[in-house]
Amino acid sequence: MRDIGKYTLVLFVLVAFEAVSQSKLVDHVNPMIGTSNFGTTNPGPIAVRGMANVSPFNVAGEQNLPLEKDSRWLSTPYVHENPFLTGFSHVNLSGVGCPELGVILAMPTTGTLQTDHLEYGTTYSNEVSKAGYYTNTLDKYGIKVEATATARVGVSRYTFPAGKANILLNLGLGLTNEQGGQLRMVAPDEIEGIRSVGSFCYYKPEEAYPVYFVARLSRPADEFGLWKKPAKYVGAEAEWMGYNGKTRIMKGYTQEVVGDSIGAYVRYDFNAPTQVELRVGVSYVSIENARENLEKETRDKSFEQILATTREEWDQYLSRITVEGGTKDEKTIFYTALYHALIHPSTLNDHNGDYPKMATRETLHTKNTRFTVFSLWDTYRNLHQLMSLVYPKQQSDMVKSMLQVYDESGWLPKWELNATETTTMVGDPAGIVIADTYLKGIRDFDVEKAYTAMCKSADQWENNPLRPGIKDYLEKGYLTTKTTNSGSVSTTQEYNITDFSLSQLAKELGKTADYKRFKKRSLSYRQLFDKEFKLLRPKNDDGSWLTPYNPETGANFVKNPGFIEGNAWQYTFMVTHDVRGLEKLMGGRKSFVGQLQKVFDNNQFDMANEPDIAYPYLFNYMKGEEWRTQKKVSELLETYFKNAPDGLPGNDDTGTMSAWAVFSMMGIYPIVPAEPIYALVTPTFDAVTIHLDQRYYTNQKVRIEKKETKDGDAKTWKVFVDGKPHRGHFISHDKLVNAHSISFK
């Protein structure tokens, strides 16, 4: 490899690239947002919908207490406050609430070879993160680390000082305690291997699965080897084992090593400061595919070229929405939120189209992108609506991916991850997304197959993984405290929302009987409305109310028989498909508004919790009270979304919280899943232009602007569509995408 003195030209190119990119939207992205306050994003580079993600890993070791992975529930490889770094992981999740992945850790060091991460770990400084790029300095070694990524390859560049240098690849360390791996030194500049992952949320350990990789160095090693640290044995035989529990260093070894705590190392002896690149291709199919991904995506490309291509791709996607006005921080918050919304669902298939079949993991093939990471309980509420509006081709491929899951497993996904069904959270959410997509006019998928799949989960009484307790739901109209010991009311509501979505799709497809049947089922939550509290309340198997009952119990993850991760206040209004019905149950508009306002006044609203994130927009349904929506949305944006590491209200939930911010700052919000309408609110910016995909929409772009509004007060502003007055505080999807301008005046 060339020494550092010969990099003047490369440095000039990089500086020139940065100068040119100053005017690009990608420069508004701050990947540090969400890396604190349990946002669970990470600042490492990733391509749009990428499989590979080079994240700094700083959640191991007592130096990072209390936010240390073995000391508490932690679902991210990186926490902004933590000082002690033990490597860079290459497959990670963003904004999730459960631990998973965070494996294939690379670490550059200097001096004597150390293989224990607690020994070779270090503090770090000079940290910078941009879309597609991350850098820091490892304080213990004086090594500058830089990283970027393609869709399936993590690319790192290490600038070593003169002297002895090491690059470690540790398969024993990961975000969870899932174990098992295999390594082989193919050549002095190439390592291949397998790492077992799985057990998302520590569920289903029997469904652990492999991730394959090939790691290639830009410079052949002067020395290489593998290490293995077996478990420590006790008993009579252990007394004879002088090597019991000790790390075995296998210098020059070129055959496979299999085990739990294993790793590979390469060593150099540099006469001058030197740069070495490490490129790690990953695959969920095979080592051969990982190698092909590495070759196809990075061969003959320099670090700078890869970085420039990845940042340009981000800029192209971010440029689908352009804004005018607003502060620098507001633009950063907006484009970072859009960036986060474009990470998951992510790519599962390899460059050649191969991907693993659900559960059995046989190799299948796709011509489109096979997406994965369907955190649907979160994302059905707004993220997929954002994709349908701004990135409809991606959304179409996501629906097709869901139908592939159905073909392979017999069921639509619930919370699918890398061709496994985690069955995390509740409800039957995929049908909501599919119906909403079709009703938005995105129809290049097999809707009859989709409808059949949706009806299967809605109607099958026995062995139904998507709707546990469906027998009680169909016979009584709701789940009871006997049906489930947690979430009887909220699960009933989730089934209602899916049934409403089914009814709307059935109506569109001309299936009148099904429309009526599912529409009736979607309103069964009404049987759980208690007039005493004017809130929803669990019922027992005999139809009696659960007693005693405190409607505030359940917040902050306190277990509650009626609600999942929430309480009655945080769920009662989660019936946006039947606002008028709930208004009537509560005794009219005044009572509805008063009860909804109490959610905010009594500190029951949880911005980080999906069930109530639509609450602020419900005031738009109440004539004369629309100003409350404007006031509350503005307050929430100002309070919870910041240009800082703690700039998300909590878990980003694979982009759901970010999608809320994107919509809210644009001035529209998809209030009812599977009903193509948006609630209106004054946009944050003077103007927002959505550039529409003409493969799906006839209009080229729609411009949303505000002009001379009085502090955004909804009591005073009026909406004009293409210069004509628009009645009400909602707009249909069809009218939105066919408008040239929407003005708040």
How is this structure best described in words?
With 745 residues, this protein is an alpha+beta fold. It is 28% helix and 21% strand. The protein has a 9-stranded antiparallel beta sheet with strand order 4-5-6-7-16-11-10-9-14. It has a 6-stranded mixed beta sheet with strand order 17-29-30-34-31-32, with no helix packed on it. Helix 5 packs across helix 18 and helix 9 (430-439) runs antiparallel to helix 10. 56% of the residues are buried. Residues 1-22 have low confidence and may be disordered.
Topology, element by element:
Elements: H1 8-20, E1 55-56, E2 88-89, E3 105-110, H2 117-120, E4 124-130, E5 133-138, E6 143-149, E7 153-160, E8 163-170, E9 181-187, E10 190-197, E11 209-217, E12 223-228, E13 248-251, E14 257-259, E15 262-270, E16 274-283, H3 287-298, H4 303-318, E17 321-324, H5 328-341, E18 346-347, E19 354-356, E20 363-365, E21 371-372, E22 374-375, H6 376-379, H7 383-390, H8 392-409, E23 415-417, E24 420-421, H9 430-439, H10 447-459, H11 470-476, H12 488-508, H13 512-521, E25 529-530, E26 535-536, H14 568-571, H15 579-585, H16 589-601, H17 626-640, H18 656-666, E27 668-669, E28 677-680, E29 687-691, E30 701-706, E31 719-721, E32 724-726, E33 730-732, H19 733-737, E34 741-744
Parallel strand pairs: 30-34
Antiparallel strand pairs: 1-2, 3-8, 4-5, 5-6, 6-7, 7-16, 8-15, 9-10, 9-14, 10-11, 11-16, 12-13, 12-15, 17-29, 18-21, 19-20, 22-23, 23-24, 25-26, 27-28, 28-33, 29-30, 31-32, 31-34
Helix pairs in contact: 5-18, 7-8, 8-9, 9-10, 9-12, 10-12, 12-13
